[in-house]
Amino acid sequence: MGLTFRPMTVDDHGLRRAAASDNTHGADVDVPPLSLYLDFRPERGDAGFVALDGGRPVGLIQATFIRGWGHVAGDIPEMMLNVAAGHRNIGLGSQLIDRLAEHARLAGWPGLSLSVEEGNIARRLYERKGFVDRAAAGTMLLNLSDRITSVAVYCGSSHGARPEYTTAARELGHELARRRLTLVYGGGAVGLMGVVADAVVDKQGAVTGVIPRQLVDRELAHPGLTRLEVVETMAQRKSRMEQLADAFIALPGGAGTLEELFEVLTMQQLGHIRGPVALCNTEGFWDPQIAMLHRAVDEGFLRAKYVDCLVVADTPAAVLDAFTDWTSPGRKWD
């Protein structure tokens, strides 16, 4: 088998139609919204590739600037991938994604989105290629830039001793919704966790919760989220939140919040996360922790650049504003 690839053209309408029909199990693709996926316009930036085996089309991938089921933003095109039945499980889908992703980087696209239903086996391929779920059910995004589209928030499952902590959580939720940033958090309905989620929901923002099954069984899960993922362990919860988020903010909290904060600080040093980590320093809550980090630098246990890059601000708005000019400190051994 000698596979070759060529750019997609407007004349490939029949191939797009067959691919869309196959992907939707024979649905009528000539009527909206499925007909959107047949609309290929290079003049607006649409691009794609067709895979050939001996001159015969056996797969295609396209990215089109449409408002389909997987729409995320106006400058992020939606991807459609299809591989012929006889050519699956040989890495062809992966090759097509790589070609499109390279084109996307050269074109300066901030990402690629797609729509794929829960339980579809193709999700495993997309996850391997770096796509992650976004709040809308069935929507995945491959982030190709440093743009922040989702923020993980770590905070207490209680309200704390000061009303200012609750106020800060509410303000953060409102700011996330106003800036159209997806909240990623621990999925609970109690304490500051519940306050920040309620605030985003109240402003029609997007919220993804990740919660261990034992907490769902104790009826602690928030019932009104855009998306709720149930995992088996606390470790899986932390890992999944790190996958879903582009930036990380710690509000006041207890041992769990401290554990989550230090995990992402460590992951930042190792280069496993690229985005900023921030402390919302309401009422000086984080001052002792900041002093401890500086002590670790002074005693030779921590490099100063990792403390210097930690965003610290008194209000949620100031924290989010600081993300704009944030620069990655690089990996520990760079």
TrEMBL record:
Residues 3-149 form the N-acetyltransferase domain. It holds the Pfam family Acetyltransf_1. SUPFAM superfamilies: Acyl-CoA N-acyltransferases (Nat), MCP/YpsA-like. GO terms for biological process: cytokinin biosynthetic process. InterPro entries: Acyl_CoA_acyltransferase, GNAT_dom, LOG, LOG_fam. It comes from the Bacteria. GO terms for molecular function: acyltransferase activity, transferring groups other than amino-acyl groups; hydrolase activity, hydrolyzing N-glycosyl compounds. Gene3D superfamilies: 3.40.50.450, 3.40.630.30. One of its GO terms (cellular component) is cytosol. Belongs to the LOG family. This is TIGR00730 family Rossman fold protein. It comes from Corynebacterium pollutisoli.
